[in-house]
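Progress against Task 2.4 (sequence-to-structure conversion) is shown through the following example record, which the project officer requested during the mid-term review.
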Amino acid sequence: MTVARIEPLVDRVSRTEQAYIALREALLSGVFAPGAQLREADVAEQLNVSKTPVREAMSSLRAKGLLVPGPKRGILVARIDAETVREIHEVRAVLEPEAFRLAVPYLDSDLVRLAHEHLDEAARHGSCHDLGAMSRANRDFHELLYERCPNNTMKFLLNDMRDQLQFAAVSGWRGTASSWEYEREEHIAMLEAAAGGDGELAAQLCKQHIERAAVKILAAAAVAEEPRSEMLR
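Structure tokens generated for the chain above:
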């Protein structure tokens, strides 16, 4: 049986912060399956730390909704349901276009160049059908678009939701790879509008992109559930 592993820590920041970063990355990369049980002692051994920083890191990840309480005081990797995915996209469709619009006046050529690099990376992963890696690259692209938004609270809320969306992607809610080229076209249109200084158009395209993504993801999930429903009859 293959045991999922995460990389040991190195001395740079506090052990709790290192444990949080390492465990969060493992969760957002799909190292652990939804519903898997995580034991403090096992994680601490893999990270080469005591159980205390792992316990504190797990507490923070529970607050983010990536981990949930399990039986007998255990900790489980969360399962994302359709209603949660729908709610996240509804809130995101309100906040992200506005954050993007507010950030447009502060964009420069360096940021635009980096955004194109994220899109190229996403395309490479999409062509290889690596949906998890493609989702991470797309996440980096979206975060970059609103990075210079002057409303820090808005950015904080969006980044929290981006974690949940990335987690949903690696948990099987990403849909299929067939739409990645169309998504790339939408991303390029958003970036071109922003680079041209048209914040209103950039925000409108962003909102449409998010709403279409939600429809496709939920529809793909419904189709994936159909065979299972037939088997239960």
